[in-house]
C-alpha cells in the first residue's frame, strides 16, 4: 500500500526531543535532536516513511567525544546538525560549558561515520564563536559551516548574526575568513541556521524570536552563497505565536528534507503545555508538509504558518517498526537505547548488568544537586499519562544512603520516592522534593521491613504525580503521600530559561562515599 491517505501525527518524537535536524540518505530518513547534559550525546531516530520512527544508538558514547562532567544545567549538547554527503554522515554539535550572563562558552565539534549506527570518529574541533553550528555541502563539493555568533558586549545585539566559513575535509579544520551573511529580521534572537540549495537559490533557514512561545522559523535567500540574503516577505513561515488556542506551541527551529519521491517537509520543535504554559515533557519534534510558491518561497502546504497535529504523509510505502517493550528485565548484555545517564557515561565503576545477573546494580555516588557524578539511569517522560514501576533491593545503614524512583528535571527540580535508613526507624521510605532549588521532605518516613524486596511505582497524570510502594511481590500497593503538582518539572523556570524535559528513572546516592549499592530487578514504563 502507499501512504496517499495516511497522516503523520504530531509530535512525531514525543517527550524531550528538541532542535531537530533532519536528513535523507537514499530512502532512509534520520533526525538528530539535542540531549543537553544527558549522556549519550545526540539522539538519532530513523524512519523509512516519515510516519514511523525508531531510536538508534547515539553517536557520542565516549568521554573523548563528549566530556560533560561539571557542565551546568541545560549545558552540554545543543542543536546538533546531521547531514549526509557521498557516503559519509557528518554530525556537528556544540558542548556548552557556560550560558548564564554575558558570556557563553560554546565549543563546536564534528564527528563522522560511514554507518549511521557507528562507529563514529573522534571529534574535530571547529570553533567556539557561537552555537547552533550547521554544515552545508555545496554542489561543487565544498563544505561550509554556519553558526550564530555571540556578542557579549554591553549594548550590542547578543545574537549578532549568522557567520559562514569554509571547512576543509583534507585539513580537518575551518579555513579562510568567517563572513557574517545574515543579521536577522526584526523578530531578533537569530539562531539555528541551515543552508539549502534549490532552483538556483541558496536558502537560509533560521530560528528567531527565542525558543519559547514567540519562537518562529524565518527564511532568506540569495543567488550567491555569501549573499546578500533577501528576507521572505511573508516571514515567519512557521510559528505558534499569537495562537494560544493551538495544541502545538513554541513552533520553531526548522530543518528541511526533500523525500526521494520529491516531496518537502520541515522538521521543527514544538511544546505542549499543561496548566497554562508548563511543558513538562520538554520541547518535542513535529513535521509539517511544505510546498514552493510560484516565486520560489517555502510555504506550509496548509496555506498558513501554524503547526498542525495531522499532516499528509509522503507517497511512500509504510514501514512500521516493532514497538519498544514496556518491561526491561535487565537481562541483556547492554542497556537499551531509551536509557540515559547524567553528564557521565555508564561504566562498571558505578553501573553494571553483570555483577548480579538479571539485575541492574547501581553504586551510590553524589547527590541530586551534583553536576559531576550522579548515579542515575533514566528515560524520557514522553506521555502525559503514564506509569513507571521497579523493584528494589537495598540495605542502607546511614541516612546519607538513598535509592529509589525519581522524576527529574535538573538539579533544581525533582520529585523522589526514596528508600533510606533513619536512626529511629531503621529502613524506611519517603518523598523528597526540590522545587526551584528549595529542598523539602513531603511526608514523614514510613518504616519498612529490612531484607524486603521493595516495589516502587509512580503514576503521572498531566500536571500531577503520585507514588506507591509494596513489600515483596505479592502485596498490594500502598500510597505514599498525596498527589503532588509537578508543573515545576518544566522548561518554564521562574529563575532562568532552561531547555530539557522531565525524565523518570532509577538512582542511588551515598553521600558518605562508601559506595553502598542497590539492585533493581526490572523497570516497567507504560503509557495510556
Automatic annotation (TrEMBL):
The active site is at residues 19, 191. GO terms for biological process: carbohydrate metabolic process. It comes from the Bacteria. It holds the Pfam family Glyco_hydro_43. The record marks 132 as: Important for catalytic activity, responsible for pKa modulation of the active site Glu and correct orientation of both the proton donor and substrate. Residues 328-526 form the Beta-xylosidase C-terminal Concanavalin A-like domain. Keywords: Glycosidase, Hydrolase. GO terms for molecular function: hydrolase activity, hydrolyzing O-glycosyl compounds. InterPro entries: ConA-like_dom_sf, GH43_C2, Glyco_hydro_43, Glyco_hydro_beta-prop_sf, Glycosyl_Hydrlase_43. Signal peptide: none annotated. The keyword Hydrolase applies. The keyword Hydrolase applies. Belongs to the glycosyl hydrolase 43 family. This is Glycoside hydrolase family 43 protein. It comes from Paenibacillus amylolyticus.
Amino acid at each position: 500500500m502507499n501512504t496517499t491517505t495516511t497522516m503523520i501525527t504530531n509530535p512525531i518524537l514525543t517527550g524531550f526531543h528538541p532542535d531537530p535536524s533532519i536528513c535523507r540518505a537514499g530512502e532512509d530518513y534520520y533526525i538528530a535532536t539535542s540531549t543537553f547534559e544527558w549522556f549519550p550525546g545526540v539522539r538519532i531516530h530513523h524512519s523509512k516513511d516519515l510516519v514511523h520512527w525508531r531510536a538508534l544508538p547515539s553517536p557520542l558514547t565516549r568521554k573523548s567525544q563528549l566530556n560533560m562532567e561539571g557542565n551546568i544545567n541545560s549545558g552540554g549538547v545543543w542543536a546538533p546538525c546531521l547531514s549526509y554527503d557521498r557516503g559519509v554522515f557528518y554530525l556537528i554539535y556544540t558542548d556548552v560549558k557556560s550560558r548564564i550572563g554575558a558570556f557563553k562558552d560554546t565549543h563546536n565539534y564534528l564527528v563522522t561515520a560511514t554507518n549511521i549506527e557507528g562507529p563514529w570518529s573522534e571529534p574535530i574541533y571547529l570553533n567556539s564563536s557561537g552555537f547552533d553550528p550547521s554544515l552545508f555541502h555545496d554542489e561543487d563539493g565544498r563544505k561550509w559551516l554556519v553558526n550564530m555568533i555571540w556578542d557579549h558586549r554591553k549594548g550590542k545585539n547578543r545574537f549578532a548574526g549568522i557567520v559562514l566559513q569554509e571547512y576543509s575535509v583534507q585539513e580537518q579544520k575551518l579555513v579562510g575568513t568567517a563572513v557574517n551573511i545574515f543579521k536577522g529580521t526584526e523578530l531578533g534572537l537569530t539562531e539555528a541556521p541551515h543552508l539549502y540549495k534549490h532552483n538556483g537559490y541558496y536558502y537560509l533557514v533560521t530560528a528567531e524570536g527565542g525558543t519559547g512561545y514567540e519562537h518562529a522559523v524565518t527564511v532568506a535567500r540569495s543567488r550567491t552563497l555569501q549573499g546578500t540574503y533577501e528576507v521572505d516577505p511573508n516571514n515567519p513561515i512557521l510559528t505558534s505565536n499569537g495562537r494560544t488556542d493551538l495544541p502545538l506551541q513554541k513552533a520553531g527551529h526548522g530543518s528541511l528534507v526533500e523525500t526521494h519521491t520529491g516531496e518537502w517537509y520541515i522538521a521543527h520543535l514544538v511544546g505542549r503545555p499543561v496548566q497554562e504554559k508548563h511543558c513538562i515533557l520538554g520541547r518535542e519534534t513535529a513535521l509539517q508538509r511544505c510546498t514552493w510558491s510560484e516565486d520560489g518561497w517555502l510555504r506550509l502546504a496548509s496555506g498558513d504558518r501554524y503547526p498542525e497535529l495531522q499532516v499528509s504523509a509522503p507517497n511512500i510505502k509504510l514501514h512500521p517498526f516493532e514497538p519498544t517493550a514496556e518491561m526491561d528485565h535487565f537481562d541483556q548484555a547492554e542497556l537499551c537505547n531509551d536509557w540515559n545517564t547524567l553528564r557521565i557515561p555508564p561504566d562498571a565503576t558505578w553501573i553494571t548488568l553483570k555483577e548480579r545477573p538479571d539485575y541492574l546494580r547501581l553504586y551510590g555516588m553524589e547527590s541530586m544537586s551534583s553536576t559531576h557524578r550522579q548515579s542515575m539511569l533514566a528515560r524520557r517522560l514522553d506521555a502525559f499519562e503514564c506509569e513507571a514501576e521497579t523493584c528494589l533491593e537495598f540495605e542502607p545503614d546511614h541516612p546519607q544512603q538513598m535509592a529509589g524512583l525519581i522524576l527529574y528535571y535538573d538539579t533544581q527540580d525533582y520529585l523522589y520516592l526514596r528508600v533510606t535508613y533513619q536512626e529511629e526507624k531503621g529502613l524506611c521510605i519517603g518523598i523528597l522534593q526540590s522545587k526551584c532549588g528549595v529542598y523539602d521532605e513531603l511526608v514523614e518516613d514510613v518504616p519498612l521491613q529490612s531484607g524486603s524486596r521493595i516495589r516502587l511505582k509512580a503514576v503521572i497524570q498531566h500536571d500531577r504525580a503520585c507514588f506507591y510502594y509494596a513489600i515483596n511481590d505479592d502485596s498490594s500497593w500502598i500510597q505514599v503521600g498525596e498527589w503532588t503538582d509537578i508543573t515545576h518539572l518544566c522548561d518554564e523556570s521562574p529563575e532562568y530559561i532552561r531547555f530539557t524535559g522531565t525524565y523518570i528513572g532509577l538512582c542511588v546516592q551515598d553521600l558518605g562515599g562508601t559506595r553502598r549499592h542497590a539492585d533493581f530487578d526490572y523497570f516497567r514504563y507504560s503509557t495510556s
